[in-house]
Amino acid sequence: MNFTRRLFAAATGAALAASMAVPVAAQTATQALSSESVIKSIQEEGVIRIGLSLFVPWSMRDVNGDLIGYEHDVGRKLAEDMGVEVEFVPTAWDGIIPSLLAGNFDVIISGMSVTPQRNLTVNFTDPYAFSGLAILANKEMTAGMSLEDFNSPDVTFAARRGATPAVVIGERFPEANLLLFDEDGASTQEMLNGNAHATMASQPTPNREAGRNPDTLHVPFGELFDPRGEAFAMRKGDPDALNFFNNWIAQQWRSGWLEERHNYWFNTEEWADQVAQ
After folding, report:
1. pTM, whole model, 2 decimals?
2. Range of the domain at 89
3. Could you report how far apart the first and last alpha carbons of the chain are, in Å?
4. Is the domain of 219 the same as that of 148?
5. Over the stretch 70-115, which tens digit does the pLDDT of each residue have?
């Protein structure tokens, strides 16, 4: 009997120890994830580093050379709510995801649309903006052309290297030629110079450029291509950061702040005199 009781006690003790080990192991794993989160390093360093690329009206230089735009309003508001400073890191678009993965900044806030290909490399938050692409074309070079006519070897598109418009142009107009540039404004300049028939860009950029150059440029179709949301991009394996950023974005949608700022930058020209033409 004594042996049986000792065996039962040992078995009970082992089971109890095992049951206690489960929450301890889970707590240890949770603490490890939390300690590795970019949110913790941002708080410790007192600054959030935001990677972005320059394109109007998301991010641009004003007449004094300072950065302004929708992204900067979002980044500054995010930093303020986190109680930290903000550092913007302008980065070429085709290298912005590798730079994030290399640790050159904490998060990308740069009008990046969510695609399956990008999502294989980075994680995305919920959208903090929505837009669609429109065709902006040289009036004289595309006079009388239908949408189907743009899919021809005789047509040349211009687009920024690595950006969503370049991908969509390749998919929708595979027969057309595609010139790629590192700077966003180069595509419009190529049309103004008569070297390209058309480009694509998120509205309201096409409407704004056509309004500024009414004799040369126009938006020939009302159709929006590839409508989708833009989101923050971050390194994988960081549930704390994803949770925090998603909650912050949701709160800014509920309060109306994101909509108000988006309307200011995308639906008005009130800021135009701040930017060198």
Report:
1. 0.69
2. 39-131+228-270
3. 95
4. yes
5. 999 999 999 999 999 999 999 999 899 999 999 999 999 999 989 8
